[in-house]
Amino acid sequence: MRVNLLGAAIDSLTMQETVQRVAQLVKCGKSCQIITLNPEYLYRAQLQPELMEPVNRADLVTPDGAGIVWASRMAGTPVPERVTGIDLMLHLMPMAEKEGWGIFLLGAAPGVAEAAAENLRKQYPSLNIVGTCHGYFKEVEEEDIVSQIKAAQPHLLFVALGMPKQEQWIYKYKDRLGVPVSMGVGGSLDVIAGRMQRVSPWLRKLQLEWLGRLIKEPRRWRRQLVLPKFAWLVIKKYVLKL
Ligand code: UDP
């Protein structure tokens, strides 16, 4: 089932159901895009409709961020749980190892994708990582990157360029890439490479991940200013029905 939130259709699935759905997408042979939708993206998409296009064309949209889960409750169509990019990526690893799916990691600073690949291989020794590439390329280099990914023939492409750049990048190139499943994963490669620590589980449980990230990365304050604006939009539409 899909629930509509401020114009975006979000798949109402648990993490386990999402993993099963991804497995189906890998097998279906199309070039699918997964978007893990957070409140910052959804708010920006209200002001920049071109950001809504990849969401509405995506094959799977997961509720990333406590704000999306809260908003779905306010709208009267609660989703079962948060399905974040990093959690989904890590949940896919055992299946990728078992099925022999090829994995390509694109993004983050030079050396980070390789370090992330190394750490993933330590945990999943038979994982088939078919390529890595950093995310600080110039526009003229994109053709080369597309060729590199195509030649590596991954089943899963994880793109860490930050949102909304990663979602737009995948949307622009997915048909040419021919990768069965591509998804944006934000800062996940930094976390997996051990360059950045994830917000502690107790803060996440208290739905205060935004606070933890603000403490770790104070530069995020400007971005997080949209969170109260997002909450107000949700209250206006679904509670006050204005
Ligand atoms: N990044 C990149 N190329 C860019 C801009 C960003 O590879 O041109 C990487 C950056 O190094 C980091 C990730 O994209 O690893 C963005 O992480 P962030 O936590 O900001 O992701 P978001 O929350 O925006 O999805």
TrEMBL record:
An annotated GO BP: cell wall organization
Gene Ontology MF, one: N-acetylglucosaminyldiphosphoundecaprenol N-acetyl-beta-D-mannosaminyltransferase activity
Keyword annotations: Cell wall biogenesis/degradation, Glycosyltransferase, Teichoic acid biosynthesis, Transferase
Record Pfam families: Glyco_tran_WecG
Reaction equation(s) it catalyzes: UDP-N-acetyl-alpha-D-mannosamine + N-acetyl-alpha-D-glucosaminyl-di-trans,octa-cis-undecaprenyl diphosphate = N-acetyl-beta-D-mannosaminyl-(1->4)-N-acetyl-alpha-D-glucosaminyl di-trans,octa-cis-undecaprenyl diphosphate + UDP + H(+)
InterPro entries cross-referenced by the UniProt entry: TagA_TarA, WecG_TagA_CpsF
Matches recorded under CDD domains: Glyco_transf_WecG_TagA
Pathway: Cell wall biogenesis; teichoic acid biosynthesis
EC number: 2.4.1.187
Family: Belongs to the glycosyltransferase 26 family. TagA/TarA subfamily.
Biological role: Catalyzes the conversion of GlcNAc-PP-undecaprenol into ManNAc-GlcNAc-PP-undecaprenol, the first committed lipid intermediate in the de novo synthesis of teichoic acid.
Protein name, UniProt field: N-acetylglucosaminyldiphosphoundecaprenol N-acetyl-beta-D-mannosaminyltransferase
Organism per entry: Desulforamulus putei DSM 12395
